[in-house]
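Submission sheet (multi-component)
Chains listed below:
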Amino acid sequence: MFLMNAWYVAAKSGEVADKPLGRKICGENIAFFRDAEGRIAAVDDYCPHRGAAMSLGRVCNGNLVCGYHGLVMGRDGKTVSMPMQRVGGFPSVKSYPVEERNGLIWLWPGDPTQADPAAIPHYEWANSPDWTYDVGVFHVKCDYRLMVDNLMDLTHEAYVHSDSIGQDEIDLSPVNTRVEGDAVYTSRFMYDIPAPPFWAAALRNNDLADDVPVDRWQISCFSLPANVHIQVGVAHAGNGGFEADPKYKASGVAVDFMTPETEDTHWYFGGLARNFKADDPELTETILNRQRKIFSQDFAVLESQQHNMDKHPDRRWLMLNIDSGGVQARRILERRIKQEQEQGLALKQA
Amino acid sequence: MFLMNAWYVAAKSGEVADKPLGRKICGENIAFFRDAEGRIAAVDDYCPHRGAAMSLGRVCNGNLVCGYHGLVMGRDGKTVSMPMQRVGGFPSVKSYPVEERNGLIWLWPGDPTQADPAAIPHYEWANSPDWTYDVGVFHVKCDYRLMVDNLMDLTHEAYVHSDSIGQDEIDLSPVNTRVEGDAVYTSRFMYDIPAPPFWAAALRNNDLADDVPVDRWQISCFSLPANVHIQVGVAHAGNGGFEADPKYKASGVAVDFMTPETEDTHWYFGGLARNFKADDPELTETILNRQRKIFSQDFAVLESQQHNMDKHPDRRWLMLNIDSGGVQARRILERRIKQEQEQGLALKQA
Amino acid sequence: MFLMNAWYVAAKSGEVADKPLGRKICGENIAFFRDAEGRIAAVDDYCPHRGAAMSLGRVCNGNLVCGYHGLVMGRDGKTVSMPMQRVGGFPSVKSYPVEERNGLIWLWPGDPTQADPAAIPHYEWANSPDWTYDVGVFHVKCDYRLMVDNLMDLTHEAYVHSDSIGQDEIDLSPVNTRVEGDAVYTSRFMYDIPAPPFWAAALRNNDLADDVPVDRWQISCFSLPANVHIQVGVAHAGNGGFEADPKYKASGVAVDFMTPETEDTHWYFGGLARNFKADDPELTETILNRQRKIFSQDFAVLESQQHNMDKHPDRRWLMLNIDSGGVQARRILERRIKQEQEQGLALKQA
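Outcome: structure written.
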């Protein structure tokens, strides 16, 4: 079960250029395309004529043209025209509220009347010229909430990513979790430690020494429906750590959007936003490539969890202090999904 | 549900040479082989000894020899012999009426007592020295009736095959559908138009100019159980079109046989019969290769329809004038399948 | 349904070195690893913390360390430690009785209190310096009992392996089957025949003429849970056959262990033990490579049986004299499985 009345990252802007894109989100097959003004549009990926996937078609004058018999569909899911046919009585298909912000396409899979574009989060790193970022798009064969758990507890870096961002000191540093409304924060601070390979490289990339002790921080923030953004970085030790002057730092925000595809698969959009050398696109690509390897290590573990969950649905997991971030995030999600369903039921009965 | 009392194309002759062929047709696993006279035979692909697939075995003296322990089965599904065994009490497996005509193997999956070889259709293009043809064999992951729909409405050529046989003029020309007994005809005539790439090439292959206006025709004919043959071609404009003298024409019959494998997969036998340059086998191969690309475009669309049908079994499709050929063909099929089932029930109760 | 209270070959020793091995046996996901003394250990492949597969982790000081968050598990399935955690209250996972003998790892998937290492069979060929052997590990997509049938009736060699160990004379020689307690023996003796390719090569490998008539024997022995060992060989004809002096022989024991993975898949460990040129590891590899080809021929037939069984679960197979070995083996298995289940029920009620 998913929270339907929410904005999800559905695609990167570049994935929808002159051709449509078909993608399943929260169980719904959706065709994305651009209208005549280049604005993003999203409709049910289903031709009302004979059921072909609209995303196999093409875009013409800002409408989506079915690749089978040429039914022309507008961004509202209504048939605009079809050669030699009167289309007045054609049934419409669902259209979805969809918005584009700073290179990301956001979809609202639920009740369109409740969709408020102003509720799409505003991120400093996405809007400031001091920052740059990129995310990769990954199809992961597990429940999206397993990825939320993963990102709300970075203890795993010491094990899953021991060759890049992991280091033993993570294990030895306590975490702190707190809930603020529908947001959850988990933080960990480490002092006077060596920089692990990923951050040593980032220090070098930022023209800083990488062979001196550093202070390191990780501050994960979960927000609805399934976004986790993590302030991460290192500063030369003794300069204030997270609060240090930028000249001592290599840091950024690990940007993670999880979008359910089905109950046990999801789309993962992940990357790093940074405010050093923001004008170096080659460095952006280098960092994302390092992360691709890191993410693939996560996917192997998460898919094994999914497999074991399917085999032993009755077994309960432990809830340790390190798991608290994920546990709290799931509670918020569950409460909101329940609310949404009760609200839907009430509307039906009214 | 399939029409069982009917002749289906099961294979091309060349697919059953000295080795047996295993193929599932209308839900039945069947082993095809040749007897001592080279006559085609078809039996249940199941060894009565230990259930191995007979089609993994070999043919010896016109019998099928199980590849596991050497049970020898005749074309009637009875065990002929087995080393060191008395086989008198061995159970038989089903044998199927099967016939070979002009390079095609025809199977009757239903009640053998009703199988009349004389009911296998006779095609001029298959029997006349003025004609030649070849078909490809394709496994398609959709209900065979979606392919019938496809072939009874060639409007789709303008979209699915815009780079070969499609052209905008198709869309702008009305179609006419008529039913005659259990046959359905859909026709479309276009006048004074450019030849699309496939037909321009065919004109050149027939030593005719390809840069002059042509008249073009498409006359689809559906017959039971799921055969669609389409008279197709172009003639230099103003010479009578479909009725023009052969010297102005490149034309032929698009030959399509659909044979259900399961409820949502089928075998597709498709190619072009032509009566120009009939003695040029290289041209036959060239044309079939052009068609392979065309067919693969169809498969992508049809499989997306199947996917959407599975997801939304409740949704009804539109029935426009262009769909009329497929709609009528499905009605005939449904009526005949219902008749067949009632007849079977009556026989059981009698 | 499997016999659970039994020793199964689970892996070759070399498959579990410094990394853990995950393998499903009798429906249970199991992680194998070595403790600090190098002794083999087997636990449920499930981390009690968050359900990740323990086999994705690493081994440290003889314990298994979860690759997700570092939970340290001992060979008894109990949590030894976890960074920053008190683990006293952590639930244990199941550990399995497991033993290593002569290059093979044996697992007892059932009730641990009934596991007696002394019940692991002792094989002369595995313990004598005069002998050598190797087995391959194969994943086969069929019920393990189909492989038992296969090995208890070597008639199939004449058909399935006609290019290696098969020859027509097999077919013409009667088999004898007898039951001794829970063991079943099937034997066949052939006299004054040519050596088939596999055995001709073995004669040459043993510096014996391969172009003279031989006597050949096959004595299959089934023992619980699903082991079939076959005395096989040829001797120059007229020297006593199976009883001949070794100087006239190329012979050995075909070693086959079948270990269920699921109801319709199994792990197959197969090879040849021999007492000629036992000190020639290159010959061992040569023979195993010849066998790999032979086994793959079996797999194709067995998987076709499985497919036909699934399609026609109601059909009964013939039980000929040649099938008697497999039939008797299945009866013993069924009886023992029934006993085991009644015993389990009685224990529960007590």
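Remark: The CA atoms of residues 177 and 324 of chain A lie 7 Å apart.
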